[in-house]
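User: I'm new to structure prediction. If I give you an amino acid sequence, what do you actually give back? Let's try with this one:
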Amino acid sequence: MQVRHVADAVRFQRMTTDELRQAFLVEELFQPGQLQLLYVEVDRCIIGSAVPGTAPLLLQSAKELSADFFCQRRELGVLNIGGVGAVEVDGQAYAMAPKDGLYIGRGSREIRFSSENPADPARFYLVSFPAHASYPTRHARWADAEAQKLGSAEGANARTIYRYIHERGIQSCQLVMGFTVLEPGSVWNTMPPHTHDRRMEVYLYFDMEANARVFHLMGSMQETRHIVIANQQVVISPSWSIHSGVGTSRYTFCWGMGGENQTFEDMDGIEIGDLR
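Assistant: Good question. You get back a string of structure tokens that encode the predicted 3D arrangement of the chain. For your 276 residues, that looks like this:
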């Protein structure tokens, strides 16, 4: 397991492009036949991936957790952004179609990831936070998600939010997770932008063409910075930072949050005219 210490809001103001990328961007998360984990100091979030080939991949604990098994004191959200696969939790197998999700509760001991076709493997994206309570493991199918349309074609931000793990959906201790799909011709997400000091957030951008990029905005509203992001890369957004983005073409992104509450609508809006 890798460990990442990100910059605070003061150091952030003086960082170069390379320093910003080293601190907040996860560039090569998905590797064939591997399970990778990144421990982020912000709210003790763990970001990970599993790309199983011919053999299943077992999620294990690490020294950084000082736990007998990964979910001994943690909960885990999973989103499949690849081919058909399965996640087995304590002997119970969950078939995972593309864009299916899975919530795995605290106390789950043995977690395995597999692909139906190694030539078109599943690509499991993982987000985990500490948990003080146990909730049942639940499968989240795309068709069953709470969907909300936002934005407009005129604003180039027409999009649909699909919520999986949230107050009105799959119950969790603190994890909130889902994904957003932009309509053709729309390129902006989370615009107007916002912050939520009560929660940190991680964004996974995917379903992008190889040569497409997203310019992800972060920082304070009056001193913004940006990071250029390619397909299947992750950006870490501390609670003090705005998080918004604009792409060279449409894309999809997974959002995962953890912190003081689970209220999706709890955010501090920012007027576009106040951005600098």
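You can read the tokens as a compact description of the fold. Here is one thing that stands out. The two ends are 37 Å apart (CA to CA).
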